[in-house]
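Why does residue order matter? Because the sequence determines the fold. Keep that principle in mind as you read this record.
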Amino acid sequence: MGYGKRIDTLCSFLQKTQSFADVGCDHGYCSEYVLKNKLCEKVIFSDVSKGSLAKAEKLLAPYVRQGKAKGVLGDGFFGVPKDTETVLIAGMGGSEIVSILADAKYGFLPKQFVFQPMHDSEKLRRYLVDKGAYIERDYTFEDGKYYDVIVGQRSVGTEKQAYTDAEYEFGKENIMRKGEAFLKRTQKQIDNIEKYLLQPALQAESRAELLKRKERLQGVLVGEIK
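Structure:
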C-alpha cells in the first residue's frame, strides 16, 4: 500500500462498506486508501485540528470535488451520522476512544470498527465487550513503536464475548499466540522495571509494586498467565 507499516496495517482491515468515517484523520491516508480502492462511495474524514484537517483536505481534494469525501472540523463523532457502517479511529488513547463512543449526544457503536489506541487498550476492550461488540482481531504490531490494533463489529447476539482478565489487559491474540512484537514489547517493559529497581532511593512500596508487575509480565511471557 505504501503508506508505511502502521497505516498499511490499519488499511488492511478496511473492507467494502456502505459508509466510512475516518475520525482523527490526520493526513487522510486511510480515507484515500478507501476511495482509491473503491471500498466506499462516500467518506467522512474528521479531525479536531484545523491543521490536520487541512492536510487531509489537500490530499483528498479530487474526491471532495466529486462529492465522494467530506471533511468535518470537530471533536469525536461530531458530524458523523450514527448510521455510518464502518469507523476507523487511530492514534488516540483508549480512554478517549471510549469517550467518543459513549458520548451522550453523538456517540454510537458502529457496525464495523478498526481502532488503534495509543494506550489504555484494556479500557477500550472492556467497553467494547461490555457493549456487546465482537472483537475479531486484537494484537500488537511494531513500526518504530509498538501499537495495538482492535478490529471487530457490533454483535447481533446477546451473549458477551469471552475475555479473561489477561486478555483484557494484554490483548486476546497476544495471550493466545504471543507474536514477536508483543514478546519484544513485554521484554522491554521487564527490562525497564529492572532499571527502576536499581535505584537506591526507591520506596519500599514502589519496589513491591514493581516486583509484582515484573512477575506478572514474566508469567505472561512463559504462558503461566492466560
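The mean pLDDT is 96.
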